[in-house]
């Protein structure tokens, strides 16, 4: 199984600073905004999500139904099922990405992108830079690394997440939201280097009083 490591973020200038072309007026306290987003994105109660999904790459596509299980603040498990009863589970908990299943050769996005597809701001990075781009506040992680990840936020919600390498977008998540919803109605991840994409569309949401069992998130770590 291929794993796309998405932990770095784009080098736009040799000094490690944001380029003039890709930045705007600076955000005064990006760390404060990041802390608020971490607290505010995601439900305050355990949730079950039912969705339909589709994955595609150069070889073709596959899809089916899925179930997501969320425990606040940041435990998420996604089970993918196909029409042939083949299944795969992906979980993130305690800052680690895990998976188990029979669907072969599906690219698993990196940790922050799996979270982002559920509308959760969990960058897992160090100090953020930030700037304003139109109606969006943009938080940027990666410092002086070769790649940077850009989180586009509007009205307290993730709207888009991009990883850029030398100014070129190489991976992206786009999110659609219904009015006043806690969870995105649709999310699409694209890896432009591998020409692969995965999309899911939420069909039903159920809130719970009791947490999902901890063992649900105890899957083998992704190597």
SSE-based structural type: mainly beta
**Number of structurally distinct domains:** 1
Low-confidence stretches: 1-21
- CATH-derived architecture: Clam
Gap from first CA to last CA: 9 Å
Mean pLDDT: 87
Strand line-up in the sheet with most strands: 5-4-3-2-1-12-11-10-9-8-7-6
Specify the CATH homologous superfamily.
Answer: Lipoprotein localisation LolA/LolB/LppX
Strand count: 12
Order of helices and strands: HEEEEEHEEEEEEE
CATH top level class name: Mainly Beta
Shape: globular
**Radius of gyration, in angstroms, nearest whole number:** 17 Å
Report on the structure:
With 223 residues, the chain is mainly beta. The chain has one domain (30-217): Lipoprotein localisation LolA/LolB/LppX (outer membrane lipoprotein receptor (LolB), chain A). Helices cover 8% and strands 44% of the residues. The chain has a 12-stranded antiparallel sheet with strand order 5-4-3-2-1-12-11-10-9-8-7-6, covered by helices on one side. The longest helix is centred in the N-terminal third of the chain and has 11 residues, at 30-40. It is globular. Residues 1-21 have low confidence and may be disordered.
Sum up the structure in keywords.
223 residues, mainly beta, outer membrane lipoprotein receptor (LolB), chain A, 12 strands, 8% helix
Question: How is the topology of this model organized?
Answer:
Elements (H helix, E strand, L loop, with lengths): L29 H11 L6 E11 L2 E12 L3 E8 L4 E7 L2 E6 L9 H7 L11 E5 L2 E6 L5 E8 L2 E9 L2 E9 L9 E6 L4 E12 L16
Antiparallel strand pairs: 1-2, 1-12, 2-3, 3-4, 4-5, 6-7, 7-8, 8-9, 9-10, 10-11, 11-12
């Amino acid at each position: 199984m291929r794993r796309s490591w998405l932990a770095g973020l784009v080098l736009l200038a040799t000094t490690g600073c944001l380029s003039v072309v890709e930045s705007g007026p600076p955000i005064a306290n990006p760390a404060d905004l990041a802390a608020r987003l971490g607290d505010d994105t995601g439900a305050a109660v355990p949730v079950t999500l039912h969705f339909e999904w589709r994955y595609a790459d150069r070889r073709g596509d596959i899809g089916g139904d899925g179930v997501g299980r969320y425990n606040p603040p940041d435990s998420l498990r996604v089970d993918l099922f196909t029409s042939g009863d083949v299944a795969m589970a992906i979980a993130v908990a305690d800052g680690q990405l895990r998976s188990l299943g029979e669907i072969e050769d599906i690219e698993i996005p990196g940790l922050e992108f799996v979270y982002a597809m559920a509308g959760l701001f969990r960058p897992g990075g160090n100090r953020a830079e930030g700037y304003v781009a139109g109606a969006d506040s943009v938080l940027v992680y990666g410092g002086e690394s070769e790649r940077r990840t850009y989180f586009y936020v509007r009205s307290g919600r993730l709207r888009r997440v991009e990883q850029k390498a030398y100014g070129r977008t190489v991976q992206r998540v786009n999110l659609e939201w219904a009015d006043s919803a806690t969870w995105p109605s649709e999310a699409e991840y694209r890896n432009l280097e591998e020409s692969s994409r995965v999309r899911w569309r939420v069909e039903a949401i159920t809130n719970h009083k009791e947490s999902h069992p901890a063992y649900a998130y105890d899957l083998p770590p992704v190597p």
